[in-house]
Amino acid sequence: MALGTKPTLAIVGATGAVGTVMIDIINGRGSVPWGEIRLIASPRSAGKKITVRGAENTVVALSPEAFDGVDIALFDVPDEVSAEWAPIAVERGAIAVDNSGAFRMDPEVPLVVPEVNAAQVHERPKGIIANPNCTTLSMMAALGALHHEFGLRELVVSSYQAASGAGQEGVDRLYAEVAAVAGKQVGVRGGDVAEALTAAGLPEETPFKAPLALNVVPWAGSRKDDGWTSEELKVRNESRKILGIPELKVSATCVRVPVVTTHSLAVHATFAQDVPVEQARRVFEAQPTVVLQDDPERMAFPTPAAVVGEEPTYVGRIRQALDFPNTLDFFVCGDNLRKGAALNTYEIAETLAG
Amino acid sequence: MALGTKPTLAIVGATGAVGTVMIDIINGRGSVPWGEIRLIASPRSAGKKITVRGAENTVVALSPEAFDGVDIALFDVPDEVSAEWAPIAVERGAIAVDNSGAFRMDPEVPLVVPEVNAAQVHERPKGIIANPNCTTLSMMAALGALHHEFGLRELVVSSYQAASGAGQEGVDRLYAEVAAVAGKQVGVRGGDVAEALTAAGLPEETPFKAPLALNVVPWAGSRKDDGWTSEELKVRNESRKILGIPELKVSATCVRVPVVTTHSLAVHATFAQDVPVEQARRVFEAQPTVVLQDDPERMAFPTPAAVVGEEPTYVGRIRQALDFPNTLDFFVCGDNLRKGAALNTYEIAETLAG
């Protein structure tokens, strides 16, 4: 399907955490290929007015008719809402680009990171294109570039995941916990973090299963077979699909850390051939969506707090493994709400618009 | 050398962060084999009174004579102090057990974790026994037990290291940073963590090279060749020496996290044979200094904040790697001031005393 010269773009979930970043990205673009930009949300948010590229835009309620005339519909909603409504958008003539987990592993739905597999946007038997999970996405621009040159074979990954991966609820909880422990001698013998949260009146129920302030939590997502979490299996299965390496060996450990925004990953990647650090650097420097921040002499390396709000993926601490042949160790930081979610979804739409 | 029935124990650096934990451990023991316990510190701290097992004990100044009559001297001081004074203690007749980095890789100094290689305390040509780095130590009780059963071959490790690994200065800095960001919408676009620290008047100079509150910092220790840090090389070299596997393959990425006490490690360990999860559990359950906390159904797993002040190493999230043969992934938490420092040093002394 060829899109018209001024296609209509819809944002479903326009008032949510990722939808808000999406509008922020659209407002920050020098130019956009869109004619109408239609904001869609739950009936509760319908009627709300949001400024998009200087013009006031009124949010409309999610309904089949809301997709009439839409060329591309971006879905930033929970899995079950996408599962129901993306096919409806397609029936009404739109291409659905979905940021939920509902369709990612469907063999008839491409899973796209434009730097890695842009051409797959055109192979969409169901009319749906999926956007990867934010943890996987945080390393894909960097890994895709290396894979293209050197042939990726194995991946051992540990994550340092931000609270905003659990939505606004996660951010609010982390802020509340930090406020509750501030000024207290906790995290030491005789100063229990969990007790400080209870004393401050915080509800025991938390999106993180354990205190997150002054702590790390080795659990993200839901429970899967054999001790794995859904997040860890997504890193494995989505990496394989995006990179087109069905036999890629992957082990991931996903850990939540008290960071508000930006996921980080410690990556141990083995290739089909030797990868000298200088060659890896050249590959990263040639990739426009990757920023190399790696100067041990000046102690320059990326940290998540410094990458917040940035579009590129930051890469540093690049080392050739001392004992593992053909293997690089490096550290990568990517804003999980931007490249990890809204930005990549929007880039898929830009790719479709040509 | 056989020790007398009531050997004299000296603690050098008795007023420091680790020395204080050492006295806390001694005070918490049901019984101790020592006759005199002598507290030694810099002349600045001499004369200070500290209660040890119910009796007031006066700190004496570091001098050659301070070691007269001492059977075992525990050193919790910086590298350069140990390098100078441990040999003096030996000259005066003591066995020196050193918690600094000064002697760890000396081939004539055993590097001891009592659960793993206790017998080596008796092979000490220089009269010195070294205590490992806290990051390495955090996983040694668990890894040593697995190695004994299954034969360790390869190790890929990512750390989540606490601020107290950088001493009291590190703890104070983290508390100050947490207080500076509390109640502020930072770590999001338009809310910079570094600016919040500056606005709160915190000095730019920090032991962590970058903000640690609401951040993680992929740098610990000093710069070594080819992009590696001293901490990462310690994990490699000390693991090889303690486990007695000179050819062990190791890649470590050391990352500081905003946790006060207790180091955590995500471990990807490959063995000479298949290790079913149930067999790994049995090995951990049989190791008295390891606590198994691993029940995915109840979302039970260790976190550093919950392990503070505990003597054992906590292990959870045990999974058989899906794509790597003979490989386990697991998560381990150990109090870096206890097992990671004072406790292991003290256990070496207990081993010497029989």
UniProtKB/TrEMBL annotation, chains A, B:
**Domain of life, source organism:** Bacteria
So where does phosphate get bound? Answer: 104
Binding of NADP(+) occurs at 15-18, 44-45, 164-165, 336
Q: Which UniProt keywords apply?
A: Amino-acid biosynthesis, Diaminopimelate biosynthesis, Lysine biosynthesis, Methionine biosynthesis, NADP, Oxidoreductase, Threonine biosynthesis
Pfam families this protein is in? Semialdhyde_dh (PF01118), Semialdhyde_dhC (PF02774)
Work out whether the entry's keyword set contains Membrane. Answer: no
Q: Which GO molecular function entries does the Swiss-Prot or TrEMBL record give?
A: aspartate-semialdehyde dehydrogenase activity
Output the NCBIfam families linked to this UniProt entry.
Answer: asd_B (TIGR01296), PRK14874.1 (NF011456)
Q: How does it assemble?
A: Homodimer.
Q: What is this protein called?
A: Aspartate-semialdehyde dehydrogenase
Gene of this entry: asd
